[in-house]
């Protein structure tokens, strides 16, 4: 990365309001890695909740607001593969389509930004626990953050590559490596029965591997799993990958 | 045709999930098939190249299907096959019936054909006094139970051997309480053997039809299509027009992909190429449109016509595995069904594209690389625009759109005023909220990230230091 | 307008203006593996069995030892007239319902899936390999080829009324995914790999 790159920190709306610690970890981590990070205060939401419900035509205002807040940055970084994928696939502006197209290329999910742009392959963090990595679908199959089990292609995983270097972290190998957790945006309420069942099964796989924590790159999936874990009064906790990666002192 | 009120996918899925053990079994059994598919696919070094090649062949077909159909018909006729064209399901059924009537035959044996399910042929023929027996074991079982198949490759996958045993005891007189699949299969074999030996008309589906040669290929593991066709005087083969492929050599690509994708087998037991009728016998082909030409004209959805009906997208779909095929109320269930069904009837099938988390696994297993999950997303947009969503949802979405486009409203200070907190389902703590039925809500932090940032960002700290 | 004209017209209006190119198939099927070994392994995996034989006498000897010769055994291979009958090709196919064993010879076999290619000129009757209780197929070892791509190269423009690839015995897993051999067709398949 060139010096003096300006990073726009894109924090998903629900992370801003429910999981500020994830935003803080992301902000601190990027600074520790030498980035100049700014959080544009006018940002709201990428528009995905509406678009995935079939109302993409209503997201023009969101798009315009996103562009207004993030146009000046060299990179836009976000601790959510799902929100990044939405921007990459669907950010448009009739009045300034060229700018929108350029910004679609500048937006990165946190772990891919660390491995591909910052070229950091080793973070000297410390997290002495047994951890299961839930590969969120939009990050994995949409952004290709890691290899997908359906394909006959060599294994790689950007988030696991970083986690594997964290001191004390014992990363388990799940039975179903990339099964969806069932969150799915509004799916989590419109198809409640299947959504919850998928979440319970995802947790079961982690339980069978005796994890202390479930981590992942998308807080939405983790929020759904956390909701089920708490209802089950499980001792397993959820933690965003940014929080694990931020577990070192500069 | 059934006029029963349709139960929406979410409601049917809720009922399916009442029996946890059954759901677990269904999920694990189909996941096992997915794993067999993975092993087979990972055994072929050229797998991804094969998928790409198959996809390109099918793209060529879709762009040139008019000429291929003309070529196919001419060649098939040269081979002595009688070709019929049906614009819709009704005409398809009438053609099949007219062939039966011409030969004055009242009984038919039929191997698997999802097209005849789509056209509700059995019901139509029953009204005309014609008895149809489905000879694929899975279809035979569900037919006895008066149920539709729940899966295009594994029609009775929603049933346990105890269910089959009970059904066979009732209809075939097998021993009560004998659940042995070997025993049950043997009893069906004996019954159906008699059927094969006595039917004058056999109907089969078509897996591939070859323009270059005018022949068609039918794939089965049981040999039921062949038993029917080679013993009957009249063989009727029904196909959607998208089953066409250009040349015989292209079968090399598709036959390598089909069974591996479907069940993990290297090939089906029988891949039968029908080119000419036996001396003195007849082969009829019914080429069916039934909405396909409309789908071909939908730029975003035409690729769904590349489907070779392997069922891999169903086996991998985490929603299908936990909701069962019947929850899709369509002849073809699962992800592929959810992008085909709205083309047939948008209002009836408006729920299906929403029965997905858009996880994308379907697209990755598809042997002809249909962008299934992207099409699910695109159908949602179409269905909303065409007015097939509840009005209340539209109102809520419009409110959300206004607020999210406007940072001033979005950022109204204070925990209770925060927009997301009131509008994200997780936080609405009341009985109406489906989030809360089986999940806790996230705890609400003292301050949001942006509140923290205002106080603790580098700029904020720098400012403080200045003061 | 007839339905045919109507369908073709609609398709013409709907299909894209530019015809997408057909891909090159020559880049496929170059997988390197031991062809005969693979054939045997795959055949066993899908419920079939094989015997390696030097000549037809060995096939006759094997059949005598392993099958009930008093039952109806039919073949299209003249060399096996000692153990099987040859004069059934013009019968009503329904009369083959009591056949215990059908013995035929395949044009070739495919290693990757153990499938054997047979056409009506060597089947005697189309239903013969399906209606029988058991099936035996003879194939020359030198006629085992690697993949389906070579198979269709070999078939080329071969003329037939009916042809089929047979891979293993008839089977089903429609009850709880439990594999059962002998759904409607042959309960067992033995392949004679001939030197």
Automatic annotation (TrEMBL), chain A:
Transmembrane segments: none annotated. Residues 8-87, 131-225 form the Cysteine-rich domain. It comes from the Bacteria. It holds the Pfam family CCG. This is L-lactate dehydrogenase complex protein LldE. It comes from Flavobacterium pectinovorum.
UniProtKB/TrEMBL annotation, chain B:
The keyword 4Fe-4S applies. It comes from the Bacteria. GO terms for molecular function: 4 iron, 4 sulfur cluster binding; metal ion binding. Keywords: 4Fe-4S, Electron transport, Iron, Iron-sulfur, Metal-binding, Repeat, Transport. Residues 297-327 form the 4Fe-4S ferredoxin-type domain. Pfam families: Fer4_8, LUD_dom, LutB_C. This is 4Fe-4S ferredoxin. It comes from Flavobacterium pectinovorum.
TrEMBL record, chain C:
It comes from the Bacteria. SUPFAM superfamilies: NagB/RpiA/CoA transferase-like. This is L-lactate dehydrogenase complex protein LldG. Residues 94-194 form the LUD domain. Pfam families: LUD_dom (PF02589). It comes from Flavobacterium pectinovorum.
């Amino acid at each position: 990365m060139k010096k003096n790159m300006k990073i726009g920190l894109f924090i998903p709306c629900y992370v801003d309001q429910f999981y500020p610690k994830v935003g803080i970890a992301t902000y601190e981590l990027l600074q520790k890695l030498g980035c100049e990070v700014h959080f544009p205060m006018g940002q709201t939401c990428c528009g995905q909740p509406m678009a995935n419900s079939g109302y993409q035509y209503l997201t023009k205002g969101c798009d315009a607001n996103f562009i207004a807040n993030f146009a000046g940055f060299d990179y836009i970084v976000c601790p959510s593969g799902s929100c990044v994928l939405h921007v990459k696939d669907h950010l448009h502006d009739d009045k300034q389509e060229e700018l929108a197209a350029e910004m679609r290329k500048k937006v990165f999910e946190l772990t891919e930004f660390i491995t591909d742009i910052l070229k950091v392959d080793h973070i000297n963090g410390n997290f002495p626990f047994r951890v299961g990595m839930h590969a969120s679908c939009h990050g994995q199959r949409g952004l290709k953050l890691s290899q997908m089990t359906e394909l006959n292609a060599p294994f790689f995983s950007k988030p696991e590559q970083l986690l594997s270097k964290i001191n004390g972290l014992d990363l388990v190998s799940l039975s179903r490596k990339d099964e969806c957790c069932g969150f799915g945006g509004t799916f989590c309420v419109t198809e409640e029965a299947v959504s919850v069942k998928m979440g319970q099964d995802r947790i079961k796989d982690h339980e069978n591997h005796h994890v202390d924590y479930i981590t992942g790159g998308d807080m939405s999936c983790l929020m759904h799993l956390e909701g089920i874990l708490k209802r089950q009064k499980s001792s397993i906790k959820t933690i965003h990958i940014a929080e694990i990666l931020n577990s070192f002192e500069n | 045709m059934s006029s029963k009120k349709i139960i929406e996918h979410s409601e049917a899925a809720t009922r399916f999930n009442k029996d946890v053990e059954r759901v677990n079994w269904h999920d694990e059994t189909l996941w096992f098939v997915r794993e067999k598919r993975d092993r087979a696919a990972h055994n072929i070094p050229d797998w991804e190249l094969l998928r790409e090649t198959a996809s390109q062949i099918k793209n060529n077909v879709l762009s040139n299907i008019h000429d291929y159909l003309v070529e196919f018909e001419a060649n098939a006729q040269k081979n002595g096959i009688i070709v019929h064209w049906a614009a819709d399901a009704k005409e398809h059924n009438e053609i099949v019936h007219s062939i039966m009537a011409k030969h004055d035959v009242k009984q038919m044996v039929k191997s698997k054909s999802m097209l005849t399910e789509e056209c509700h042929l059995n019901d139509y023929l029953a009204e005309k006094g014609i008895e149809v027996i489905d000879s694929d074991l899975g279809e035979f079982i569900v037919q006895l139970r008066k149920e539709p198949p729940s899966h295009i490759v594994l029609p009775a996958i929603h049933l346990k051997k105890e269910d089959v045993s009970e059904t066979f005891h009732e209809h075939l007189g097998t021993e009560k309480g004998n659940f042995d699949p070997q025993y049950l299969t043997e009893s069906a074999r004996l019954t159906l053997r008699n059927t094969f030996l006595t039917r004058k008309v056999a109907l089969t589906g078509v897996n591939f039809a070859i323009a270059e040669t005018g022949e068609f290929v039918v794939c089965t593991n049981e040999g039921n299509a062949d038993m029917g066709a080679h013993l009957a005087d009249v063989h009727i083969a029904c196909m959607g027009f998208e089953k066409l492929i250009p040349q015989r050599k292209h079968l090399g690509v598709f036959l390598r992909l089909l069974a591996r994708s479907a069940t993990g087998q290297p090939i089906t037991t029988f891949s039968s190429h029908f080119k000419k009728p036996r001396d003195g016998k007849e082969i009829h082909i019914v080429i069916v449109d039934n909405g396909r030409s409309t789908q071909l004209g939908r730029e975003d959805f035409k690729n769904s016509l590349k489907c070779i009906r392997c069922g891999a997208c169903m086996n991998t779909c985490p929603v299908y595995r936990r909701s069962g095929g019947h929850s899709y109320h369509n002849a073809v269930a699962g992800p592929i069904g959810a992008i085909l069904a709205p083309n047939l009837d948008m209002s009836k099938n408006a729920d299906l594209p929403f029965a997905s988390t858009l996880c994308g696994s379907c697209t990755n297993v598809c042997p002809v690389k249909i962008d299934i999950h992207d099409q699910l997303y695109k159908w949602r947009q179409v269905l909303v625009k065409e007015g097939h969503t509840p009005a209340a949802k539209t109102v809520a979405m419009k409110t959300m759109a206004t607020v999210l486009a406007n940072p001033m409203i979005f950022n109204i200070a204070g925990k209770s005023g925060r927009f997301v907190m009131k509008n994200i389902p997780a936080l609405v703590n009341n009985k109406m909220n489906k989030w809360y039925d089986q999940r806790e809500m996230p705890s609400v932090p003292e301050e949001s990230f942006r509140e923290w940032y205002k106080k603790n960002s580098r700029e904020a700290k720098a400012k403080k230091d200045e003061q | 307008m007839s339905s045919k004209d109507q369908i073709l017209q609609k398709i013409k209006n709907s299909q894209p203006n530019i015809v997408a190119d057909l891909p090159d198939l020559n880049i496929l099927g170059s997988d390197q593996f031991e062809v005969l070994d693979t054939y045997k392994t795959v055949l066993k995996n899908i419920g079939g069995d094989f015997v390696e034989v030097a000549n037809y006498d060995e096939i006759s000897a094997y059949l005598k030892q392993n099958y009930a010769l008093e039952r109806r055994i039919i073949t299209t291979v003249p060399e096996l007239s000692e153990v099987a009958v040859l004069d059934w090709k013009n019968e009503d196919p329904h009369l083959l319902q009591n056949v215990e064993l059908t013995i035929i010879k395949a044009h070739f076999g495919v290693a990757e899936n153990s499938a054997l290619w047979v056409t009506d000129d060597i089947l005697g009757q189309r239903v013969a390999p399906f209606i029988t209780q058991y099936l035996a197929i003879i194939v020359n070892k030198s006629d085992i080829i690697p993949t389906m791509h070579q198979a269709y190269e070999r078939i080329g423009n071969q003329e037939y009324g009916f042809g089929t690839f047979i891979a293993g015995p008839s089977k089903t897993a429609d009850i709880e995914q439990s594999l059962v051999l002998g759904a409607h067709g042959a309960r067992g398949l033995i392949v004679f790999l001939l030197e």
